[in-house]
Design goal:
The complex is a heterodimer of chains A (114) and B (111). Chain A is mainly β. Chain A contains no helices and ten strands. In chain A, a hairpin with an 8-residue loop joins β8 (88-95) and β9. Chain A is globular, with a radius of gyration of 13 Å. By secondary structure, chain B is mostly beta strands. Chain B contains no helices and eleven strands. In chain B, the strands form two sheets. In chain B, strands 2, 4, 5, 9, 10 and 11 form a six-stranded mixed β-sheet that branches. Chain B has a five-stranded antiparallel β-sheet with strand order 1-3-8-7-6, with no helix packed on it. Chain B starts with a strand and ends with a strand. Classes of the chains: A mainly beta (114), B mainly beta (111). The A-B interface holds A 4, 33, 35, 42-45, 48, 56, 58-59, 91, 93, 98-108 and B 31-32, 34, 36, 42-46, 49, 51, 89, 91, 93, 97-104.
Chain lengths: 114, 111
């Protein structure tokens, strides 16, 4: 596609349920980033993938969060046993080279945990 | 730990004015600095990327400068237009391979 796409655009879930968020980067982009933007808060960096290298997971807020990237393309961010504080907009971005090149952002997934 | 701040938090100007947005960071060990704009309910759009070895970048009416040693960057917007109204974010990419964003400056350009 022409840009980064994310699905679903909105997700409402009950506390304790697991959710999976998907990101389709721009074709050919080797770098992929996940961010979280809570209401009234700034952007929080979660995790970054560069090619097939193992990502640095230290930015993930808890062990309930995990992310993977299959085949160097599509990425999924999984949140297990969701909590109300997980409610936020989750943004994905991709780029040509990790950190040193421009990032292109998707529209985000708005997650609401009831 | 890298911290990024932006001032002012909000700014309202009449159309046609030139304006400057400020970004400061505490750790100068960065690869680059990026400026983004975020429109309400939408994702981010990259405006300018300045590598750590560069002093400034220009795109149209936008000019961004970087003084890495002092931990500062400015975004200059010339001849502002109502369409420039958005939240402007700066972010630094650290040697530790993570991005840190500032809280943003909310800009309103009044017609």
């Amino acid at each position: 596609g022409a840009g980064v796409s994310q699905s679903p655009s909105n997700k409402v879930t009950e506390k304790g349920k697991d959710v999976e968020l998907r990101c389709d980067p721009i074709s050919g982009h080797t770098a992929l980033y996940w961010y979280r933007q809570s209401l009234g808060q700034g952007l929080e960096f979660l995790i970054y993938f560069q090619g097939n290298s193992a990502p640095d997971k230290s930015g993930l807020p808890s062990d309930r969060f995990s992310a993977e990237r299959t085949g160097g393309s599509v990425s999924t961010l999984t949140i297990q046993r969701t909590q109300q504080e997980d409610s936020a907009v989750y943004l994905c971005a991709s780029g040509l080279a990790g950190g040193v090149d421009e990032q292109f952002f998707g529209p985000g997934t708005r997650l609401t945990v009831l | 730990k890298q911290e990024v701040t932006q001032i002012p938090a909000a700014l309202s100007v009449p159309e046609g004015e030139n304006l400057v947005l400020n970004c400061s960071f505490t750790d100068s060990a960065i690869y680059n600095l990026q400026w983004f704009r975020q429109d309400p309910g939408k994702g981010l759009t990259s405006l300018l990327l300045i590598q750590s070895s560069q002093r400034e970048q220009t795109s149209g009416r936008l000019n961004a400068s970087l003084d890495k040693s002092s931990g500062r960057s400015t975004l200059y917007i010339a001849a502002s237009q109502p369409g420039d109204s958005a939240t402007y974010l700066c972010a630094v990419w650290n040697y530790g391979q993570n991005f840190v964003f500032g809280p943003g400056t909310r800009l309103s350009v009044l017609p």
